[in-house]
Amino acid sequence: MENNQPIGIFDSGIGGTSIWQEIHQLLPNEKTIYLADSKNAPYGQKSKQEIIDLSIKNTDFLHEMNCKLIVVACNTATTNAIQELRAKYTVPFIGIEPAIKPAATNSKTQTIGILATKGTLNSELFHRATEMFQDTRIVEQVGHGLVQLIEGGQINSIEMEQLLHSYLQPMIDANIDYLVLGCSHYPYLIPQIKKMLPDHIQIIDSGQAVARQTQKVLQEKVGVSNIKNPEPIFYSNTDTAVLNAILNNKYTAEQINF
Hints:
Structural class: alpha/beta
Distance between the termini: 33 Å
Number of strands: 10
Strand order of the largest sheet: 4-3-1-2-9-10
């Protein structure tokens, strides 16, 4: 089944580009429209209703762009708003949730760590996921300040290094053997995180799983594109310098009001 309409992707800023990269790599013939709601980042400190309202705003924009499928490339928006989005729209949604299952299933120490936003860790969806693994100790850590630093282009700053060390050391002391990254911004911190973690601790994020699920839904329900090397489109509602830098200036994001 062929369908050349674009895939829409939104996040509370630039972090979801880590998800976009996985989708683009797996599905290079799919046209993509990426929406960075950086003006309202981070979502993790907002109320559930605020997150739902922002997610609806973003979805309305992508819906008007005739997107055939929408990827909620934000853990906080997925865990707080995806049920409402699916009830309101007919377009299929792909969400992103912390990859607790593979970590808990494979853990030898029966102790895993999760670094996520307050909005994700406090969500009902997250609590339902953790209840499935009663025999696993889950060390939760809110990544206060990390998204703001990433959005500000401060990935390699001293402040980032200090924050990460303060968040990771208690997990190391608790004997975790898996670290789950529960925010789509956090994969950009993997180089620093790897320097701080012992070699035996594995890092898991959801990017590849989201890309595979997107491929599955396209093939089974929506239709795949046969456009050769379509140019991706990136929009942001703040200055695009950091977004363009994340994209290695290979693509140029457009600043618009939404």
